[in-house]
Amino acid sequence: MTMPAESSPQVYTDVSVDPFVRGFLHRPANSNGSGLVLTHGAGSNCQAPLLIAIAATFATAGFFVLRCDLPFRQDRPYGPPSPHDGKRDRAGLKNALAALRNMTHGPIFLGGHSYGGRQASMLCAEQAESDPAPASGLLLMSYPLHPPRKSAQLRTQHFFTLRTPALFVYGTRDPFGTIDEIEQALKLIPAKTKLLTVEGAGHDLGFKGKAKREELPARVLKEFEAFFAV
Questions:
Q1: Is cis: bond before 144, omega within 30 of 0?
Q2: Number of continuous H segments (helices) and E segments (strands) in the chain
Q3: What b/e string do you get for 1-21 counting C-beta neighbours within 10 Å, with b at 16 or more?
Q4: Sign of the dihedral through C-alpha 181, 43, 28, 109
Q5: R_g over Cα of the chain
Q6: Residues forming a β-bridge with 11
Q7: What is the pLDDT of residues 125-173, one digit of tens each?
Q8: What is d(CA 56, CA 47) in angstroms, rounded to the nearest whole number?
């Protein structure tokens, strides 16, 4: 049974921390106690249609959802991150998780599209085994396994120390990695993982321009709830 979410998300900012937290907060009409931080890819921002659709669907199911701009995007409205931005972007995600943790009492999850998902997974992989995990689980959409046409440049070095359960969502036509490649990569992760494939979709998962795969957010939610038992 789905529950209504509030009609529109609220602008959310926290300038008391460094890096700032900036984005939009979706408050559920009936909370299930869980929260989800969502962030964007290298060429986008938190207003990406995919993130809006995922956030709205999860909020309707009872999640507090904070979709946020990474620090590099707060600094520059356009253009990709530099190689030096990653550490600060991960610090921004950590602050966003802390902000959401103050609003609800249940598990907090971390999700991202492409570069945002990569930074989310790196944040969790960097955590010492003796310390509490930054998030209860990861939602990684279109993980950028390698640059297009450069399959030797794998971005999986941190997978060996990723102990956070992760649900991967991947299009069968993603130029950043084939389904076979992502299946092999997931074997490197010691935590529980699952791969949800989207037939015929590219890196945008069918959310390019005004195009939307209307059924995808509900499908992601269903797999997420089953995988994480929430």
A1: no
A2: 6, 8
A3: eeeebeeebeebebeeeebbb
A4: positive
A5: 16
A6: 24
A7: 998 777 888 999 999 999 999 999 999 999 999 999 999 999 999 999 9
A8: 12
